[in-house]
Design a protein that fits this description.
Low-confidence stretches: none
Mean pLDDT: 94
Structural class: alpha/beta
Strand content: 25-35%
Number of domains: 1
Order of helices and strands: EHEHEEEEHEEE
Bound molecules: inosinic acid, magnesium ion
CATH class: Alpha Beta
Number of helices: 3
Largest sheet: 7 strands, mixed
CATH topology: Rossmann fold
CATH architecture: 3-Layer(aba) Sandwich
Number of strands: 9
Oligomer: single chain
Distance between the termini: 14 Å
Shape: globular
């Protein structure tokens, strides 16, 4: 795996430090006495970010998993997103925080946002680890963003290329011949 990596953009140590800061910001947004928080990670890209983030959050919460597919196979352009596993936790009148790995074109977060709003959550916010520059339409935003990155395809720390590299501990770019 290491031999496929061209360069590391964000090290695990940098990720760890930033996620602690994000956890503080998120915790400040949901005071302890305010119960009914449901985190909704979008599978599978968000799992490593989720695992590190939730262990830094002190408040009570539930997890509701949702899966969205936008890439089929060895491609780096997202197609139309579709929900492949729907939420099974009741979010009506709950505070909902959607967790995703990266905000790129915004198709994923738009679709998930629409689906979740139908169920009348009390509040709906979004946290993403990474954001690529300004491809997302103005109405698709993230309330919490870890890092802004350049417009290039990255892997590691949960993010995949054709299903691989999710277990690579840093955010990295593959060698050109690997794409
Ligand atoms: P969007 O729907 O275009 O905003 O893309 C969001 C989804 O596409 C993310 O949840 C990722 O799964 C995937 N994605 C977008 N950019 C990258 C990337 O650079 N590397 C790996 N996955 C990506
Ligand atoms: Mg994803």
């Amino acid at each position: 795996m290491e031999g496929d990596i061209d360069r590391i953009l964000i090290t695990h140590e940098q990720l760890d430090r930033r996620i602690r800061e994000m956890a503080d910001d998120i915790a400040a947004c949901y005071p302890e006495e305010d119960t009914g928080l449901v985190l909704v990670p979008i599978l599978a890209g968000s799992i490593i970010f989720l695992a590190d983030l939730i262990r830094r959050l002190p408040m009570k919460m539930k997890l509701g998993l949702i899966a969205v597919s936008s890439y089929a196979g060895a491609v780096t352009e997202s197609r139309d997103a579709s929900i492949t596993r729907d939420l099974s936790v009741d979010i009506t009148d709950q505070h909902v925080l959607v967790i995703d790995d990266i905000l790129d074109t915004g198709k994923t977060l738009r679709l998930v946002g629409q689906r979740l709003r139908e169920r009348k959550p009390r509040t709906l916010r979004t946290a993403v680890l990474l954001r690529k520059p300004s491809k997302a339409p103005a109405d698709v935003t993230a309330d919490f963003v870890g890092f802004e990155i350049e417009d290039e395809f990255v892997v590691g720390y949960g993010l995949d290329y054709d299903g691989h590299y999710r277990n690579y501990p840093h955010i990295a770019v593959l060698k050109p011949e690997r794409y």
